[in-house]
Each structure stands twice: as C-alpha cells, then as structure tokens.
Amino acid sequence: MACIDKESRSPCSSAASNAGETPRGRILLRPQDYIGSIEKCTRKIWVAEVSSFTHRAVTYVPGLYKIFDEVLIYAADNKQSDPSMDSLRVEIDVHQGLISIYYNGKGVPIELHPEKGLYLPEMTFSHLSSHEEISGWLSNCYEEQTGRRNSYGVKLANLFSTEFAVETVDSRREKKFKQGVNWTRITFKPDLAKFCMTHLDDDVIALMKKRVVDVGGFLGVTGQVVFNGATLLQFRNFRDYALCYTRSVSKNTKRKISCVYHRVNGSLEVCVAPSQGTFQQIAYRVAKCCNERLQLQVEESEVKKHLFIIVNLVMENPSFNSLARDALTSPHESFVLCCEISDDFVKHIVNCIASTLFPWDSSKRTKALKRRG
C-alpha cells in the first residue's frame, strides 16, 4: 500500500497553519493553486451521452474534478511508456464515494530508490518531498509526452482523499506492491468534506465519464475503455472521437454537420467542423480562401464564429500556467514539428462551413463552388 499519513490534514490544523514549512501544508492552505477552486461552480461544459456529447450547464467542484483527472491522466499516460497497454477500467461507487482506476502494462518498477531507500511506487504516489527526485528518474527513463511533469500530479489525489491505495504488479521483477501480467490499480476516496460535498452527484459523475471518454479518444482502437462495467464508445481514430461533438451540433441545429480531418504529423491531428462558437489561428486563411473561391466577402472575425476546432496534440515536456495546469504555456519554438496547414485542407474547411457562413444564398454559393472546383 502507498498512502500519505492522514494526520493533521485539515487546513485549520497546526500543520496547515505552518504552511511555509511543508509542501503538504502549503497545498492544504492554498488548494486553488494546485487543484483549482474547492467551491461549487456552474459552467457550460461538454458531457458524455450514449453516442455523442452534449454541451450543458454542469454544477461541480473544479478541485474534485482535478484530482480525479490527475489519476486518470496518470493511467492514460502509461500508454506513452508502454504501447502494449490496451485496457483502462474506471469504477465509481457513488454510495461509498470510492473511485478505482485500473490499467495494464508496465507500471512504476517495484524497486528501491538507490539513495532514499524507499520503493519507487511509494515515492511516486505518496512522498511530496520526493517530487523532483521521482520526476528526474522518470525523465531518465523516457522523454515525457505526458501530463505528469511540473506538478505533484497523482499525489494531490492522495492528499485530498481519506483513503488512497495502490496495487501494482511488476512481472519482470516478480513482485507485487500491495503475479502474472503487469497491471496497476489506484483506488481512492475523495475527502468530500474538503469540497463542501456529501456525495458524488450526477453532474460530477457525468463530467468524470466524459473525461474517461476523452481518454478513449486518445487510446483509439489500441485500447478498451470501461466505465462502471460498461464499455464506452469505441473510437477507431481521432476523427471518430471528434464526430461525437459534431453529432451534438447536428442535433441542436437540426442539420447534418460534416467534419474535416487532417493528420498534420505524427504528433498532431486536427478536426474542423462548423460551430456557433469562436476560435482561432487558421481563420484568416479560411476567410481569404472564401473570398477568392466564392467571390463572397467575409471577414476573419465572421469565420471565427463558425469554426469548431478539435486538436489532438502529443508534445514532449509540456509546461503549464500553474501547478493546477489549466492552460498549456509551452512556447511555439518548443514544438518539435511545425504545424503546416495545407491549402487543400483549408479548401476542405471552406466547403465544410460554407453553408453556415452563407445560409442566405445557397444557390449562389453552390454555383460558385462548382465553378471554381
């Protein structure tokens, strides 16, 4: 078992009052800096339904969602270090407030740290003070293309839980940390009192389920994702995942929505569909292409209102705006591969969103497209 000592963990305790003395005290005193707000908020967020996503108001506690996400992403990131990983199972017991995340493949080696004399799983999941040492050890094993860097990560879920247990099997060393094939299971019970909650409500479960589906989009056909005993949507590729969003737009607008997909390189995939929201970057080229191909004037700002861009990006050693990791801040110079958007892809986008941009003159639009090919 790997557990942080649960004594004196209340922000009002003497340990927390001396926040400057220990990492745990600092985190408990200022949780918003590490996991986000611990108060309820209501926002419009995408959640998962049977065969698509829906954008609706959800009331949840960002901090609780963050600690769940830390454990889930930790599990999903294992795919980067061990491509043989093909199973991820998430179980949420609403009555007990217990969350369990299982994944196969190689986990943290069950061996002693040469200097600390502690088992690596214990350091990985428990010891806040060993964050830099274990991060350095991981970096030496492989280039990180994960969400584990520059934060306490999964240890935060441990700290904000009343129970936290790790089981992991290391078949190479024939050891089990708590034989057979490699696997890891992380089970924890969030300290709901810290989030002013008494139970895991429907909105929180819906949000967690959506995040699990996101991971399914990342794993694709190479992995099976199970949520509360049921296999979730199976995605052959990232485009299949993006279509879950466009189905929602189709349902709301009562018209068929197409989606344009482009694999830019081995680390970046882009899907573009019509939207009533706003977005960025390639809007200028799309506007220019609309004006040239259709002979209809459209402003860049108008194009942005109708672009729905979904991106799958894998990058090495990402950096974030804070320990809560709300936004990626890696400078574009750090991207190994450039994002070159071809003219053909832009033309496909124009065809995709033309009916949304010019609904008032479909006949003229159709003639222009046929004339200019």
From TrEMBL:
It is an enzyme of class 5 (isomerase). It comes from the Eukaryota. The keyword DNA-binding applies. Transmembrane segments: none annotated. Its cofactor is Mg(2+). Gene3D superfamilies: 3.30.230.10, Histidine kinase-like ATPase, C-terminal domain (3.30.565.10). One of its GO terms (biological process) is DNA topological change. This is DNA topoisomerase (ATP-hydrolyzing). It comes from Paspalum notatum var. saurae.
